[in-house]
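Hey,
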Amino acid sequence: MGKEYRVSIATLTDYHLQDFIRCPYQFYFHHIEGKSAAHQNWRKMIQFVINQVVSRYYKLPPESQTNEKVKELIDEYWRVIDVRQFESKIQYYMTLANITEHLSQFLTAGKNEYPPLFLYEKLNMNIDELGTDLSLTLEVAEWSSNSFIIKKYLVDTTEDMNVLFIHLISVFCQMAFGQLPDRIEIISLMDGNLKTHIPTEKDVSNGLKYLNIIKNLLKEPKNYIKTDCATVCNSCSYQKRCFEGIHMNHESIIMQ
């Protein structure tokens, strides 16, 4: 494994945690070694498209929030996606069809009379219980009768990812706003699955324990284990590098 070192974490960010949960090796190559992939990961590129479409859609007046407009926005932003990033043209067109169908379905499911409370707002605060800052992007926070609803539109997700987001959102909202959202909705656009969770105070206490465990795991690259998920590996830009293994050359790296 080479020279051992520990990672010093100044800020726990949602995208660091998300990448770590997806695959610790992929996280290491990208965020710690800072190695650029030979080509863009198609999943990350599609997530960029989703973010742009959702943001533009919620800024439209209610009368313009239609299926046709969603498809128009997807067509506009999909130009950044290169078919060569996929294993085949079939995978490319199936992905486009799934994202278009499910994004249209979930965005137009209800009329939004009021603009979102938050729309892709990146927030940061110090969490004493974690001994570090916590950074979270609230993609969509809609008004509800007494509180708010957090929605995450993702390319795809796993149960481990859902657990991460539920803990992360519960802890951050309670600490930052003194209030939990009415519910958390995690939307997987590849398969159209919706994970709905109503957070409680137990999610906050469990979330703090969970995030402390993840923080401690992040600090020890020598213990990183690569994912055994074929779906993640097949779309990974670091497959060749992964077989070469992790070689640590520094005693300490600080992650902001």
